[in-house]
Design goal:
The chain has a single domain, classed as Alpha-D-Glucose-1,6-Bisphosphate, Chain A, domain 4 (2-Layer Sandwich), CATH 3.30.530. It is built from three helices and seven strands; from the N terminus they run βααββββββα. The longest helix is centred in the last third of the chain and has 26 residues.
């Protein structure tokens, strides 16, 4: 079994536009459906609440790892197991990476999530399945978002 999810999508928008949609916390919140408490800063914790219908009760907790302007953005986010008595800050994390490359049509965005081995069995497979579907959904969201906004 693989320990990573990789999703690639070609966006019909320049790298600068895709970068802004990823790195600006307010823009990120619009397409990702999360209300973030403040800007993304490497080495700092990002907090907020999901706004996706049906998931509004779920917190957002991530630590921004790296931001390389118009190239790379990564964070570690916590698996939030609602069945667990463990606080979200103490639950395992996975690494989410966004890589941007210019193409003739716009931008190739590669989304990678890895580190699922940190999650306990049998939850690991459930989270990988759910997050695979989630990244397909989020790839559609960012595609529509950058196509419809400047």
């Amino acid at each position: 079994m693989t320990d990573r999810i990789v999703k690639q999508v070609e966006l019909k928008a320049p790298v600068s536009r895709v970068w802004r949609a990823l790195s600006d916390h307010q823009e990120f919140g619009k397409w990702f459906r999360v209300k973030l408490d403040g800007p993304f800063r490497p080495g700092e914790v990002s907090t907020g609440m999901m706004t996706l219908p049906g998931y509004e009760h779920l917190p957002w907790l991530a630590t921004v790892e790296r931001m390389e302007t118009e190239k790379y953005f990564s964070f570690r986010w916590h698996d939030f197991d609602e069945e667990s008595d463990v606080a979200i800050a103490d639950q395992p994390t996975t690494l989410v990476e966004f890589q941007l490359e210019p193409t003739a049509e716009g931008t190739m965005l590669t989304i990678t999530e890895s580190g699922f081995e940190a999650l306990p069995d049998p939850r690991r497979l459930e989270v990988m399945r759910g997050n695979t579907a989630g990244w397909n959904f989020q790839a559609e969201n960012i595609t529509a978002y950058v196509a419809s906004s400047d």
